[in-house]
Design goal:
Elements lengths: L1 E8 L5 H15 L5 E8 L6 E8 L2 H8 L2 H10 L8 E5 L7
Antiparallel strand pairs: 1-3, 1-4, 2-3
């Protein structure tokens, strides 16, 4: 399993639109083969900072997701709503720690 953590710094006046777009992306992504979990979080003390935590079966599922029309549209639509580029990290479990 591969976990992706994606952080977005949204312009304060664009938060509502970002949430609508993120909800659409989330609904579609959860239907994809190989998606194990897809959740969106908001920082507790900064309503304009969002974190997506995604769990994927493997790299093939991630590659397919990155090429899905709904995901490409999401990225295009949010580009003017965010400050800078999203911060994206891929992480995996440490098997020795349970």
């Amino acid at each position: 399993m591969i976990t992706i953590v994606a952080r977005f710094d949204v312009k304060p006046d664009c938060v509502d639109k970002f949430i609508r777009l993120a909800a659409d992306c989330t609904r579609n992504t959860r239907k994809e083969n190989g998606n194990l979990s897809y959740k969106v979080f908001r920082e507790r003390y900064d309503n304009a900072k969002f974190t997506f935590i995604e769990e994927w079966l493997n790299d093939v599922a991630i590659d397919k997701h990155n090429n899905m029309p709904h995901f490409k549209i999401f990225l295009t639509m949010i580009a003017p709503l965010i400050n800078g580029e999203p911060e994206i990290t891929q992480i995996i479990n440490v098997p020795a720690i349970r």
